[in-house]
Design brief:
heterodimer, A: alpha/beta, 8-stranded mixed sheet, 4-stranded antiparallel sheet, 14 strands, disordered N terminus, disordered C terminus, B: alpha/beta, 13 helices, 12 strands, 32% helix
């Protein structure tokens, strides 16, 4: 798998000068915890901390991690389904979410923060480009709407179909493309199995012709034999339409299979990011290693050394000081509990947030995160 | 001991088990003529997709099925038919001789009592012990399942424990009365992989240390591969295949088992030319319990199906040493890949209904 060009490495090759489709910088999301009669803020859930990500055209970026690590929140912040507390999100050169400091013209010259993201009309236009597929096809479909109404809703909202007949024809095409029979058009969600409902969800996302889709655990609610069908559908759509995916999952083997590059999250931070083949052959971060060795494998894991990490991820309300993984890390040393490691660049787009790789790092760490885009 | 068949002592014997549900005018067949055995100290993995009847089988063993279930066949624990004993006698069996751990530890623990009081209650229900003795037994059980600082954690409420800890408490509770058989129904499905690895390790250790027999129910072949001695694969209420664990994964003979093994991505599914190869799929989907296909229930999805498969129910045949298969087509010496040759991804892409 090594040496296979992912769209990202192709695009990043010197001289190409192609920027990412989606650029996320310093994304931070803290949910306030309110308690008591007056709802005073008593703390924050540090769900996402300073996340940098790029997704290139036609690329699948995998985002893996255990429950509560912030992967879903990251996906939702990118789509502005949640409003992040910090950072910028850029899509195709436009700022979706961001702030800028400006100095007032007056004599005192005070600075204030101005929102530079898209307004309502801009967001509406952008939603055509960025779509989402949810984990649970049961709760993400409206039980009172027919498939035609649900899949066609985006066409109505974005005025993509002039007449009812045109809308129906377009929906019929989509339905066929995702592998559902034509008679599905007038049916309701409860008449379908889990896998079929997920196909409806995919058709709905495709209806407006997006260039980027957040796939949030798209197959984890499905049976194994059906999972493969949905994964294959997503792969063939990407090949045909050149859609980029942010593929969020806790299933490492699945992510390895579908993603060109993979980012591993732990407690709100990206701890490692690399080309999929490289990450699986040569994981650098102790957490990534532990995750891989915990995958139950059918061959019984012959020849593998199991790294069992003790305990469970701590609460994101009070993340541990220093490296967030140090209380569970089998290789932690003094410095890990005092100083927060930055992401070190190991070359070839491989980044790892661990002091153990500091000596191997090709260059000085970039403050705050990943290699900056062009 | 599982390898050593001469010294096997059968603990649980399920024979001809069928479970039907009456729904309006029709009868749903959840389990059909199922037979499995578990020896003392053995781990049997029961694998299948949702609705295949694996949990129903477990509930039937515990006699916890809803009232509208019609159960036939026999379930013997150490020679005693559990269907014939009284409710009081069954209550003594549950917990003391067979214990069960469920998928969702959050909903299995009572949120308004401390875990300690729930553990103590479990001891007191079966044995005449003082409160102090019961409490020290509870602390001991919590220590055995690797809960750190059990003396103080025992007074925690369930919400103060993490998901993995709650599942450990459930296992501790199940083991309090030293049962012979532990039924674990998807014990790690609700927890993360790193936590799952710890819990599976714990189950293996308890089995080795206490000679506990385990019926491990899972949809995940990987989980079962790690700790089971034998594996039984169920499809649509029937046993499709059963074999010792290594035998099964090396020589899966039933087309369904082969399909399951191939549907999961493995490291060998490498990306070529920057794109992922399609996964191999099993076309179609699991049939509805109210409308099971005739003959072999897998035949509408099976790439190797013959005409006969739609007409006759395939009997369980022993094709290799200790390897049972319910398939008309399977041969004992067949290369494990035969049924899926040429059955590429495209077939499954289209066939959805």
């Amino acid at each position: 798998m090594n040496g296979i060009p992912s769209p990202a490495t192709e695009a990043l090759r010197p001289g190409r000068g192609v920027g990412p489709l989606l650029g996320v910088r310093g994304l931070t999301m803290r949910f306030p915890i309110r308690r008591g009669l007056f709802g005073r803020v008593r703390g924050h859930v540090h769900a996402v901390e300073d996340v940098d990500l790029d997704v290139f055209a036609g690329e699948t970026l995998g985002l893996v991690g255990e429950s509560g690590c912030g992967k879903t929140t990251t996906g939702r912040c990118i789509l502005r389904l949640l409003e992040p507390t910090g950072g910028t999100v850029e899509f195709d050169g436009r700022t979706v979410w961001g702030h800028r400091e400006v100095r007032d013209a007056g004599e005192d010259g005070r600075t204030r923060t101005v929102f530079t993201g898209l307004d309502r009309a801009g967001m509406r236009e952008l939603r055509r480009q960025m779509q989402i597929i949810f984990q649970d096809p049961q709760s993400s479909l409206n039980p009172r709407m027919t498939v035609e109404a649900m899949v066609g809703e985006g066409l109505v909202v974005h005025r993509l179909a002039a007449t009812r007949a045109e809308r129906r024809a377009k929906v019929a095409n989509l339905i066929e493309r995702v592998g559902l029979p034509q008679e599905s058009l007038d049916r309701y969600p409860h008449e379908f199995s889990g896998g079929q409902r997920q196909r409806i969800g995919i058709a709905r996302a495709l209806a407006v012709g997006p260039r980027f889709i957040v796939c949030d655990e798209p197959v984890s609610a499905l049976d194994v034999s059906v999972q493969a069908q949905i994964v294959n559908l997503l792969l063939s759509l990407q090949e045909e339409l050149g859609i980029s995916y942010l593929f969020i999952s806790h299933d490492l083997l699945l992510v390895e299979h579908v993603a060109h590059r993979v980012a591993v999250m732990y407690l709100g931070q990206i701890v490692e990011l690399a080309d999929s083949g490289l990450l699986y052959e040569n994981p650098a971060h102790p957490y990534t290693r532990a995750l891989f060795s915990a995958i139950p494998e059918i061959d019984g894991g012959a020849g593998r050394t199991r790294v069992l990490v003790p305990g469970e991820p701590p609460s994101p309300v009070n993340p541990p000081p220093g490296c967030r993984f140090h209380p569970r890390c089998p290789r932690a040393f003094g410095r890990c509990s005092e100083e927060a490691p930055p992401l070190f660049d190991l070359g070839g787009g491989h980044l790892a947030r661990c002091f153990l790789v500091e000596n191997e790092a090709a260059e000085a760490p970039v403050p705050g995160g990943a290699a900056r885009g062009p | 001991m599982p390898e050593d068949t001469a010294r096997r002592e059968t603990l649980l014997e399920v024979a001809g088990l069928s479970i039907h549900f009456r729904i309006d005018q029709s009868r749903a067949r959840a389990v059909d003529d199922l037979g499995v055995e578990i020896a003392r100290g053995e781990v049997l993995g029961l694998v299948g997709e949702s609705g295949c009847g694996k949990s129903m089988t477990a509930l039937a063993v515990m006699r916890l099925l809803p009232r509208n279930a019609e159960v036939t066949g026999s379930i013997r624990l150490g020679g005693v038919d559990l269907a014939r004993i009284s409710d009081d006698e069954m209550r003594a069996v549950r917990g003391a001789r067979i214990a069960m751990v469920f998928q969702e530890p959050h909903s299995a623990l009572n949120p308004v009592f401390t875990v300690g009081s729930q553990l103590v209650e479990a001891v007191a229900a079966h044995e005449k012990v003082s409160m102090r003795q019961a409490r020290s037994r509870a602390v001991e059980a919590m220590r055995e399942v690797n809960i750190p600082d059990p003396e103080s954690r025992i007074d925690d409420y369930p919400h103060q424990l993490s998901g993995g800890m709650k599942q450990r408490v459930m296992i501790a509770m199940a083991l309090l009365c030293r049962p012979d058989l532990l039924i674990a129904d998807e014990p790690t499905t609700a927890v993360d992989v790193t936590v799952q690895a710890g819990i599976l390790d714990l189950i293996s250790r308890l089995r080795a240390g206490r000679g506990l027999a385990v019926l491990l129910i899972s949809h995940d072949l990987g989980v079962v591969a790690g700790i089971a001695d034998r594996v039984a694969i169920m499809y649509a209420g029937r046993l499709a295949e059963q074999a010792p664990v290594r035998e099964l994964f090396a020589h899966a003979l039933h087309p369904y088992t082969q399909g399951l093994l191939r549907a999961r991505p493995t490291k060998s599914h490498a990306m070529t030319g920057g794109r992922a190869a399609p996964l191999r799929v099993i076309p179609g989907r699991v049939p509805n319990a109210l409308a099971q296909p005739s003959g072999c229930r897998f035949h509408p999805r099976c790439p190797a199906a013959l005409e006969r498969c739609a007409a006759e129910v395939p009997p369980l045949r022993t094709l290799r040493d200790g390897h049972l298969v319910a398939c008309h087509v399977a041969e004992g010496d067949a290369p494990p890949d035969w049924a899926w040759r040429g059955a590429g991804a495209a077939a499954g892409e289209k066939a959805t209904r």
